[in-house]
Hints:
18% of the residues lie in helices and 37% in strands. By secondary structure, it is α+β, with helices and mostly antiparallel strands.
Amino acid sequence: MLFQAPVFETIFRTPVEHRLVIRGSRSRGAPMDGVRWFHDEFDAAGVLVARYETYDEIDASGAARCGWRRYDAAGRLVARHEVPMRWSALVALQQSRRGAEIVLQRLGGQLGPTPRSRHGLAA
Length: 123
């Protein structure tokens, strides 16, 4: 099967009036095999609103995974989502690239305020 990269605007639910710009990508070979993409999202006025890191890889332990992380304009991680398989396996499982993109849209890793201990410090 020919590799078909995801449509990142679909995965990130980028509003139509926003612009998603690729900053670059990185590939690496065994034993940690994979590729990462880096995007910036700008609003209609051209203001940076988010940065994204998307990945499709085999990690150091040999586990397959693909997913993304969203950072706000200040660089804080605000959302993430990951599935335990490579992009091509997800496309095959969903029987379409569009189906795989929908699976990656889910916000299983929405981040909120850091929990605090009884002493007021981050847990």
